[in-house]
Amino acid sequence: MSDEDNHFESKADAGASKTFPQQAGTIRKNGYIVIKARPCKVVEVSTSKTGKHGHAKCHFVAIDIFNGKKLEDIVPSSHNCDVPHVTRTDFQLIDISEDGFGSLLADNGNTKDDLRPPSDEQLLTQIKDGFLEEGKDLVVTVMSAMGEEQICALKDIGPK
């Protein structure tokens, strides 16, 4: 059997890791980092000088991108940290169920129905008011990282 008989189609994320290593000293504000196994956005970075015991240290203050909790970590600047692969995808909102789950339409025509409502109450209210009460067509941005997904932004594309 030759290799010519087998045709394999590969996808970019098939078998790919949820994170990648990056040197702590190169991570900046507004970047991403994994702290306590949670994907976070860095809001503050401070670096201490090298001391008697070696390495300069980076102090990260970050906010969990899914639940908004503040997390901190201190890492030697020459060591590697895990950085999550964060992606943003736009979907058109088709419907909202009673339990708050949205039915979303992707660009390729597939639907996505397994997305939990956003944890941000203000965003959730804007989505419900705009879609259910005002009848607007809405495009939502879904952020995904480390196997989790959540609606993080909203765009109004006009009336239905």
Automatic annotation (TrEMBL):
<protein>
    <recommendedName>
        <fullName>Eukaryotic translation initiation factor 5A</fullName>
    </recommendedName>
</protein>
<dbReference type="InterPro" id="IPR012340">
    <property type="entry name" value="NA-bd_OB-fold"/>
</dbReference>
<feature type="region of interest" description="Disordered">
    <location>
        <begin position="1"/>
        <end position="21"/>
    </location>
</feature>
<dbReference type="InterPro" id="IPR001884">
    <property type="entry name" value="IF5A-like"/>
</dbReference>
<feature type="domain" description="Translation initiation factor 5A C-terminal">
    <location>
        <begin position="85"/>
        <end position="155"/>
    </location>
</feature>
<dbReference type="InterPro" id="IPR048670">
    <property type="entry name" value="IF5A-like_N"/>
</dbReference>
<dbReference type="InterPro" id="IPR019769">
    <property type="entry name" value="Trans_elong_IF5A_hypusine_site"/>
</dbReference>
<dbReference type="InterPro" id="IPR014722">
    <property type="entry name" value="Rib_uL2_dom2"/>
</dbReference>
<comment type="similarity">
    <text>Belongs to the eIF-5A family.</text>
</comment>
<dbReference type="InterPro" id="IPR020189">
    <property type="entry name" value="IF5A_C"/>
</dbReference>
<keyword id="KW-0648">Protein biosynthesis</keyword>
<feature type="compositionally biased region" description="Basic and acidic residues">
    <location>
        <begin position="1"/>
        <end position="12"/>
    </location>
</feature>
<dbReference type="GO" id="GO:0045905">
    <property type="term" value="P:positive regulation of translational termination"/>
</dbReference>
<dbReference type="GO" id="GO:0003746">
    <property type="term" value="F:translation elongation factor activity"/>
</dbReference>
<comment type="function">
    <text>Translation factor that promotes translation elongation and termination, particularly upon ribosome stalling at specific amino acid sequence contexts. Binds between the exit (E) and peptidyl (P) site of the ribosome and promotes rescue of stalled ribosome: specifically required for efficient translation of polyproline-containing peptides as well as other motifs that stall the ribosome. Acts as ribosome quality control (RQC) cofactor by joining the RQC complex to facilitate peptidyl transfer during CAT tailing step.</text>
</comment>
<dbReference type="Pfam" id="PF21485">
    <property type="entry name" value="IF5A-like_N"/>
</dbReference>
<dbReference type="GO" id="GO:0043022">
    <property type="term" value="F:ribosome binding"/>
</dbReference>
<dbReference type="GO" id="GO:0045901">
    <property type="term" value="P:positive regulation of translational elongation"/>
</dbReference>
<keyword id="KW-0385">Hypusine</keyword>
<dbReference type="GO" id="GO:0003723">
    <property type="term" value="F:RNA binding"/>
</dbReference>
<dbReference type="Pfam" id="PF01287">
    <property type="entry name" value="eIF-5a"/>
</dbReference>
<dbReference type="GO" id="GO:0003743">
    <property type="term" value="F:translation initiation factor activity"/>
</dbReference>
<dbReference type="InterPro" id="IPR008991">
    <property type="entry name" value="Translation_prot_SH3-like_sf"/>
</dbReference>
<keyword id="KW-0396">Initiation factor</keyword>
